[in-house]
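User: We ran a pulldown and think these components assemble together. Before we commit to crystallization trials, I'd like a predicted model of the whole complex to look at. Sequences follow.
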Amino acid sequence: MSEENLFAVLRGILLDELATLCPGLAPEILARVEVTPTKDPAHGDMASNAAMVAAKPAGRNPRELAASLVERLGAQPGIAKAEAAGPGFVNLTLSPALLLAQLPVILGAGEAYGQGKARDGKVNVEYVSANPTGPLHVGHCRGAVVGDALANLLAKAGYEVTKEYYINDAGAQVIALARSVYVRYLEALKLSPEAYIETIPGGVQYGGAYLIPLGEELARSHGDRYAETSEAEWLDLFREFAVAQMMALIREDLAALGVRHDVFSSEHALVEAGGVARGLQSLRDQGLIYHGVLEPPKGKIPDDWEPREQELFRATRFGDDVDRPIAKSDGSYTYFANDIAYHADKVARGFDTLIDVWGADHGGYVKRMQAAVKALSGGKLDVLLCQIVKVMKNGAPVRMSKRAGTFVELRDLIDEVGPDAVRFLMLMRKSDAQMEFDLAAALTQTRENPVFYVQYAHARCRSVLRAAPPVDVSADLHSLAAPEEQALIRRLITWPRLVEQAADAREPHRIAFYLYELAGDFHALWNAGRDNAALRFLQEDKPKETVARVALVAATAIVLRSGLAVLGVTPVEEMR
RNA sequence: GGACCCGUAGCUCAGCUGGAUAGAGCGUUGCCCUCCGAAGGCAAAGGUCGCGCGUUCGAAUCGCGCCGGGUCCGCCA
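Assistant: Here's a predicted model for the assembly, 576 residues in total across the polymer chains.
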């Protein structure tokens, strides 16, 4: 694959010149040299900080070094103009030919444009991982979308990515689920569940109607065989059945959102296979597990606090604030112990980069898990915390009350605004910032709705292309000189760089913002054609200009599709 | 009491890992369109980047201390 990232190309050229001017610069210094798009067209197409970064170590004045670089760069074939500016920036204006030559590159690559070269390392992105105790609710939505888009983004950037869902099917909650299903089973048999409910510690935990069909199904297949028996007789059966049914339900919800995981890992299976002891062994071998008593939390002390000896993981050695318990007082493992084992399992499966997408309520859990992964493999765990989403309607918060029946389930949200809007709008915010999701705004068909705006841009491209002569990759493009056309081309060529940067930063929201800006550039060109008929794409009497513009429109459609694919949003052919 | 996240225009939010005059949408104001490429278009006003020190050629961005909002804090997962 030829280098699609023009910024990387120019950076290479610049580094060569810099090496000639200042031999022997340390790699750390060179690594800090950037070539970035300019904000102000007066600064040319690209700008570099090279002179400012290298000046000090090279013992030179930044402005003077910039001037030397400019002198050499100005002679390069693809560079029309090089200028030193400000405190020592090197501003580059590319030759029109080099800029235009990127359009055939885009057309040739198609949607693969921006695809990074294969990178070393297998990445595992774990997201959603909701307890299998009921349908997904809106609280799960953001993590689902962010995780899915991040995984797509990393794949686009060249990583080998696995999308994974961790099924928490081993703890007290799925036992509570089984008991709740048993109540529905008794009801299905027309038996009174009251006496049984009395015996459930904490009562019926999951009272939702979605468990009724499960009770009916069990009554159908097993009759009253378990009606009078002890819990030990039916608990495993009911639990397994319920978990399987709930996972089917969850998968349907995910499918409605366009989310598809490659791997579903069961905590229960891991525990059954003795994975926990195995996972902890490496920590034991390193002497990182010991029996000890934790200090009480400073300040507010829980009412029932008393010093207690526990089996602890030495998390403090890896940056955590306190050591963390891996066993409860009854000797059974904590959730943390299971999670250590699960992450050890991911490491054992050959993943060298682990990424977890969690809700903000798990923020306090990040350090200990990162500490565990560091201890297990020396590798790094990245955690994306997704902050709360407030659902709004016309400026007022939508009450999420189960009793009122409003917007509890993810399905409600998807049914109201559609999967494309849900996905795109969830990605219009940094994941670690709280956000408001406005249902009314999600449905408007104006610029204020980014989904609409971007899809509309694509639809407009397609509508032009349907009426246009076939795209010609070798078209003469010199007529593409209007400011709006140039701005669009400049935006298009930043796509490969953006993919790389967004992936490195683990920030899929940057893709959404880029698409919004790209759509803005395209709409601006479209609008310019309204005032000035000479700028319209299809010119009956000017075949040469028409062919050039068709190439530009086709390239725009390609990049829009390429970006929408990362977000998992449909590139519609026309607006309806 | 402590940990983590956030604080940028009236509102909702970006700001490319420290760069040049801090941006977008909505809202506001003004003009244009109503013979169609208008589910509009152009333009303007609007900011002590929560506050204060510090690091440096240079800080919205990094460090420390406050203030405000959120999440969480040993046998829940």
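Chain A has a mean pLDDT of 92. That may be worth checking against your pulldown data before setting up trials.

User: Thanks, that helps.
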